[in-house]
């Protein structure tokens, strides 16, 4: 199944999933059927799983705001989301779509061929991870050393 890797990020082309994203995919695996289930199983089988606090800031995780390009098309900016959060308003990309599943766990600069349900494929390039929930948690929880209280002044 998956391998656990303490390194935060590597140059490998295999997807890197946070432990939370891996667990969410396992739940979706039990709920989905057909090609969607197969895409989830494939992702789980090849992913390197690391803790959320160790994942690199340039890896796409659930809830990340991403800038990507499909083929020669325009740059798109979407939030990678769970199916129950996605709305057809252009702000989200459902992670269960072929493009969404390909983005999950990818690093900035990754280009990959994505198979489509109709038998075709598209080239997908992840240009930027503008926001990543795990990186934001790290930023907000940066420890400030104790100033030794009132006697420090």
What does this structure look like?
It contains four helices and eight strands, in the order ββααββββαββα. The chain is an alpha/beta fold and 153 residues long. Helix 1 (19-31) packs antiparallel against helix 2 (34-46). Mean pLDDT is 87; it is low at 1-12.
| Oligomeric category | single chain
Major β-sheet profile: 5 strands, mixed
Number of helix segments? Answer: 4
Q: Element order, helices and strands?
A: EEHHEEEEHEEH
Distance between the terminal alpha carbons, to the nearest Å?
56 Å
Chain-averaged pLDDT? 87
Fraction of residues in helices?
25-40%
Uncertain runs are: 1-12
| Shape, per Cα inertia axes | globular
Q: Tell me what portion of residues adopts beta-strand conformation.
A: 25-35%
Q: How are the SSEs ordered, and which strands pair?
A:
Layout: E1 3-4, E2 16-18, H1 19-31, H2 34-46, E3 48-50, E4 65-70, E5 75-81, E6 92-94, H3 98-103, E7 111-115, E8 121-131, H4 133-140
Parallel strand pairs: 1-3, 2-3, 5-6
Antiparallel strand pairs: 4-5, 4-8, 7-8
Helix pairs in contact: 1-2
Notable features of this structure?
alpha/beta; about 25% strand; 8 strands; single chain; five-stranded mixed beta sheet; about 150 residues
